[in-house]
Task: structure prediction
Amino acid sequence: MLDAATHVLRAEPATATMQSIAREAALSQATAYRHFPSVEALVAAYHEDVIASLAEHGERSRKTGKELFEHQVTRWVKMQNVHGPVIVRFWSQRGYLERLHAADVLTTLSCTAWDRALRGVLIDLSLPDALLPVARFLHNALFDPRAIIDLTKSAGLRDEQVVRRLSDAFYGALTGWASH
Result:
């Protein structure tokens, strides 16, 4: 069912319904609802798959520091070409820190996907590990899928340009925050 949802959500992220997903999966709508109580629950599972894939990508890498961070950013930017519209449609209305303190599943999974790379950046910038929560917050703000889609689609930047500019902005913001 998740495969069918992926197909439908990518094709029509703004209008996907449980009925269209069930039809794609060749299931009755009642059966679909037995698996997932709502489209939102299905999308949460989809989003979890996306973040888990990113986490696995980072875990497989032997890179460290900024090199690992930019490796993860490159993957994240590329993922937005496929998954961004779905993620954006169901992006949480709650703030990042609120979700982090509430141990929100997706936010916790996101930390798993990014923390090794963020810690490497802190080391490369000679900043204390105590700034990890700040690094998480700034990362979340700068690497929002909506911003990435805007930069690639509306501003016409190539993926490599988005990676470079957002990474440099992140390093500057983190360094600036640490100096205050």
